[in-house]
Amino acid sequence: MNFGSVSSADEIEQRYREASLVAAQALKLDPFNLELKKAAEEATRGILKDLLSGKGKEILALPTVQPTQRITYLAHSAPLLKIKTDDMLPTQLLTPFQASPCKPAESDHHVRDAYNYMTVQTDIAMPKRQIQVVQDIARQAAWTAAISHTVAAIKGQDMDCRVLDLGLHAMAALDAGAHHVTAVERWLYLSLTCRETLKLNGFEADRFKVIYKRPTDLKLQSDVPILCNLLVCDILDEGLLASGIIPVVRHCLENLLTANTHVIPASATVFAQAVEMRTTDVCGLDMSAMNRHRWHPSHTAGIAVADDAFIPLSEAMEVWHFDMLSPPEESYCKTLDVTFTRDGKLNAVVFWYELRLTKDITLSTAPGCKGSGMPSLGPAVQYLAGELSVEHGMVLPLLASHNTVRMRFDIEEAEYLHLAKPDAAFPALHFAMLADHARNEAYQAAIARVVQKKKSSAGSAHVLDLGSGSGVLAVMAAKAGADSVVASDIHGSLCGVARQVVASNGVASSVSVVHQDAGLLQRGREVRALGANIAVADTFDAGLVGHNFLNLLELAKKNVLQPGAAVVPCSASLYVMGVHVPPVHVGKYDLSSLDKYRWDKGYENCQLDQFPHTCLTKPCKVFDYFFEGKRKGKGRDNIVKLEVAVEGKMNAVAFWFDLHLDEDESICSGPSYMAVGGAVVPTGQPPALYPLTGVGSASEAPDTAGVAAPADAAGAGQGAGAGPEAGEPAAAAGPVDVNTAGDVAGEMKLLRQASFEACEDAVTEAVPVAGSTEMAGSLVSRAPHCTPVGGGCPAAFIAAPAFTGAKIGMLFQMGDEGLGYYADVSSAEVEPRCKASMICKEPKEPCSLADENPQTTDSSHAVSADSTAAWTDGVSDGFSSKASNAEGAMLPSAAVMQSVQKKVNEVRIDSAAAGNIFVEADGGNEQGDGFGQKADGGGKAGHYWGQALQYLDRSVQVVPGKKIMLLARRDGAQICFSLRAGTGSPVARAPWKEEWGGGASVENPHFQRVHYCELLVQDFLARLRSKRFPSIEEDMAMLQAHCGSLLLDPAVLAQVYHEMVLLEQIHSMPELSQAASMQAVTSRPLKLH
C-alpha cells in the first residue's frame, strides 16, 4: 500500500480514509504484517493532517428526509420486522397486549421471545432499582409534600379524595387523608412489595387496593372501582418520556379520572445543551480513537453522568413543555438555533427536565443541580451522528423531535470530522478506565520501570497485554522502550480501536493487535517463538478476580510467557470489612419488605462513600495473590476473624483490593477512608456511618444528623458540624469507646425519619419555587491527602511476611534478617510524597495533616488541626469519633435550602449516640475546614473499579471486643463470603431465589420464570450456530424503539440490549478458552465519562 504511485496530492488526500479502512481490514487477517501497520500509521497521520487543514470531513451518506417524513419510512401496515428503526422514533407504536393496528408485542412472532425475556429481566431488576428511588430523601420528601398539599386542597372543596397511585406513594396519600387509594404497579415484585408494605405499616385493607397490571390496560370498575380525582404518576426516567408517562397519563385522563382532576406532576419542562464529551490525551497518549464509539441506541439511562464528563459548548435551551392535564397525542418536531459559546468539538447533547409537582414544588434532573436535584435521577446524554468542529459564535440548527415516548436531537446537514460507529456491544467501562487518571499514571510509571529493568537484565523486553481493551497499556509499554508488544482482546471493536490508537501514537512498528481470546494465544503464531517476558493487564473488577484474571494468567504462563516473566501488577491483596446495611425506610414508613431483594449469591460493585452503611469491624486481609514468580498465596478458601469495633447487626461485607504494580507503586481501590495495607485514613471523621440516601453524589446527599447552613464570608472558617444556629460549629464529641458503643440501628432509623420530616416540613413551608434553567457549577473536588505512617525515619529492617505496599527508602526482599523491608542505602534522601487516588508511597516522616502550610489559600488542601487531633487522639485502632454532617439535602429549590437546614438542625437525638456514630459521606463544607478532607482515593476521586459489596445469607448481632469468623471462598471466578454454619439468623430472599425442589411440576413458579429466560438464551445460542436466523439486535432495536409504549424500563433495557448483542458476538467466535469472561466486557461503569 504505497501512496507514492498516486498521481497528485489531491488524490492522496481523498484516499487517506479509504486506505485506513483497507489497512484496518487487512490487519484483522494479518496483524503482524509490518507494511500494513506502517500503511495504517501513515493513513492515520494523513487523515489528522487533512482535518487540521479543514479537509477530509464526512457527511451522512443518505440525504436527510423532511422532518414531517422523518419518523417512519414505511406504511403502518408493514410487517414489524421490516419497520426501519434507524431514527428510533416510529409513529405507529407497538402495544404490549391490547389490540392495535400493529400486532401486540406478546403475540407477534418476530419480537415475542425478546419481549417476554425483557419483561422477566425487568421484573427481577426493578425492586433493587426501587430501593435507590425510595432512599432519595429529597425526592420522596417533595412528593410527599406535594401529595399532602393536593389532598388537602381537594378535601377543602368538600370532596372525598380518591387517588390513583402509579409509583408507591399510596401511604403518603392515605396519611394525608385520602378516602381511598388504588395503587397500580406494572411490575410483579413491586406490586407484591406495595401490598406487603401497606399491611406492614398498619393501613386498613378497605382503604386501598393494589393492582398488578400495566397502567394503560386499566379499566373502570373491574380495576378502578370509581373515577378518581387525583393521579399520582411517578413513572420517571432520565429521558422523561421513555418509561411511558405520556401514554399512561393520557389513558388515565380519558378513562379513569374525573373532569376536574388533579395530576402530580403538573408539568415538565425539558432543557438541552450542546456539549463536548470526548476522550483526548491519556498520559500524553492520543486516545481520541475511542470517541468514534461514543454511540448509544437511544439516550443513556441507569448510569450517573460524572461531574467532569463533558464540556458545555452552549447555553441551556428550553426545548419542550409538557402539561400533564393535556399531554401530547402525536409526534412533533422543531428546529432550535444553537449558538456556541466556546470552541470545541460537538458530539453530544445533554438534556434534563424540571418537574413541577405542584405550583410551588419543583424537582430537577439538571447536571450538578443541588437545590432541587434528585440524586436518583440525573441528566440524559444523547450522542450525535459524529463529531463537529464548532467555534465561538457559530450557530447550527438542532432538530428536536419526540413521539410521546422518546425524544431525539439531531444536527443533520453538517460536515462531520468523524462519523460515529454504531455498536451496541461496545463496553462503556473503557471510557471510565481512561478517565481514571491516577490509575493510568501509576500503570505508566510501573510499566516503564519494569521494561527498563527487564532490558537491563535480559537484554530485551517483549510485552504481552492481556485483555488490551483500548490498547493504552500496550502503547505505554512501546513508548517505554519495549522491543515488541502483542495486545490481545476478545472484543472485535476494541481491537479496532487499539489498532487506531497504535497508529496515531506512532508505535505500529513494535505493537501488534490480535483479536483473539488471550487464553488461546500460542508461541510462534500470535506471540514470538521464544515467548514474552513481560505481561501487563488490567482485567480486574471490584472483587479483584471476578473477570477470571487468575485463569487467564495461568494459561498465558503455560502457553506464551517465559519462565520468570515479570507481571504488571506483580501481586494483589484483598481486604474485607463487616458492615451493616440499614433496612429501607422512607420517613416514618417501613419499607423493609424491599430488603429481601438485596440478597444475591455474588457481589455487586458500588462506591461505599455514597452508599448507606455502618462499618462494624476493622478491615482484615483475606487473600494475597502473587502474579509473578513461583510464590503462591493462600488457596481457594480462607477463614478470617474480623475484630468488631461497633455494635450492630452485620448483614453484609464490603471488600476491596490493593494492586501492587511493582515494588514501588501500589494502588488501593478502597473507599476514601481506607489506604494501602488496610489502614484507616485520618480524615477528621470516623468511618462509622455513611449516608442514608445511598444514591447520587455524596456531597449532595441529604443530611442524616443535621445540616449546617452554608457559612457566610464572616464564618467561612468555622466548623462544618451542625450547631444550634447556621454557621455555628458543632461541639466535638469524644472518641467512640468500642467497648461501650451502642447498637446503631435504632439511632439510624430515628435520624432517617427526622431528616425526612425536616425536608418535608421545609418543602411544605417553602415559598413558590423558581426552578433553575441553567446548569449549576460542578461540585467542589477536594485534593486527597497521603496516609500518615508511624513517625521517625525508616528502620534498617522491618519484618514482613508479605509485600504490603511500597515504602520509600526501603526495599522488600529476602536478606540476612529474613523476609521484610530493608533500608535502601543506595537511594538518595526522598521527600515524603502523596499520590492521588490511593497511590501510596509511604513517607519517611509522618505526613501530619496539621503540618500543612497554614498560609495556603487552596480550600482543597486546607485542614483543621483540631479535627486531625480529634481523629488521632481517639482512633489509634482506626475508628472513631467526631460528629459531622453532610453538606446539605437536595430539595425542590435552592430557595428553601436554609429553611431545610434550620429544620434539620432542630432535630436532636441523644448527643452521645449521635455524636459518636454519625458522620458524613463526603465531608464537611466547601470552605475546607478539615472535616471533609478526603484521603487519597475512594469517593468521587476513587478508581473506576469501585468496591465490592456482598449481602450475607445470614445476619448476626456483633458486639465490640469480640471476633466474628468469616469463611472466604473463591467459587469459580468470584470470591464469596459466608458466616460459620449455625451463626446468626437466615435473611429473607427474593421469591425467585427460593428453590423448592421436587421437579418442574412442583417447582417454585417464580424460579421457573427465571429458568424460562435461561432456556430462551440457550435456544437463541443454538439458533445462532445455524446462521439461518436474523440477529438478536433486530429484536432488541425494535423493543428499544417502542420502550415507552411497551412500558419497559429504559435502564434495564439498555443493559440487556448490550449484553445480548455482545453475547451474540462472543459466541460467534470459533473457539473460547475457559478463561474467557463475559463479565469483563458487560460490566457497567459506576459513572459515565
Provide a brief overview of the structure.
Helix content is 25%, strand content 21%.
Please characterize this protein's 3D structure.
The structure is a single chain. The chain is an alpha+beta fold. 25% of the residues lie in helices and 21% in strands. The chain contains 20 helices and 40 strands. The strands form ten sheets. Strands 24, 27, 28, 29, 31, 32, 36 and 39 form an eight-stranded antiparallel β-sheet that branches. Strands 6, 10, 11, 13, 14, 15 and 18 form a seven-stranded antiparallel β-sheet that branches. A hairpin with a 2-residue loop joins β37 and β38 (974-979). α18 packs antiparallel against α19. The protein starts with 8 loop residues before the first helix and ends with a strand. Mean pLDDT is 76; it is low at 1-10, 61-88, 97-103, 684-744, 767-794 and 826-940.
Q: Kindly state the mean pLDDT as a whole number?
A: 76
Helix content: 25-40%
User: What kind of sheet is the major sheet?
Assistant: 8 strands, antiparallel
N/C terminus separation: 37 Å
**Percent of sequence in beta strands:** 15-25%
Which features characterize this protein?
1089 residues; alpha+beta; 20 helices; globular
List the helices and strands and how they pair.
Layout: H1 9-29, H2 34-52, H3 112-134, H4 137-155, E1 162-166, H5 170-175, E2 180-185, H6 188-200, E3 208-212, E4 228-233, H7 245-255, E5 257-264, E6 267-276, E7 281-282, E8 285-286, E9 304-305, E10 311-312, E11 317-323, E12 332-339, E13 344-358, E14 361-364, E15 380-390, E16 395-402, E17 407-410, E18 418-419, H8 429-435, H9 437-458, E19 462-466, H10 472-479, E20 484-489, H11 492-504, E21 511-515, E22 532-537, H12 549-559, E23 561-568, E24 571-580, E25 585-586, E26 589-590, E27 604-606, E28 614-615, E29 620-626, E30 637-643, E31 648-660, E32 666-668, H13 744-764, E33 797-799, E34 810-815, E35 818-823, H14 865-874, H15 897-905, H16 911-917, E36 947-958, E37 963-971, E38 974-979, E39 985-986, H17 1005-1026, H18 1032-1041, H19 1050-1066, H20 1079-1082, E40 1087-1088
Parallel strand pairs: 1-2, 1-4, 2-3, 4-5, 9-40, 19-20, 19-22, 20-21, 22-23
Antiparallel strand pairs: 6-10, 6-11, 6-13, 7-8, 12-16, 13-14, 13-15, 15-18, 16-17, 24-28, 24-29, 24-31, 25-26, 27-36, 30-37, 31-32, 31-36, 33-35, 34-35, 36-39, 37-38
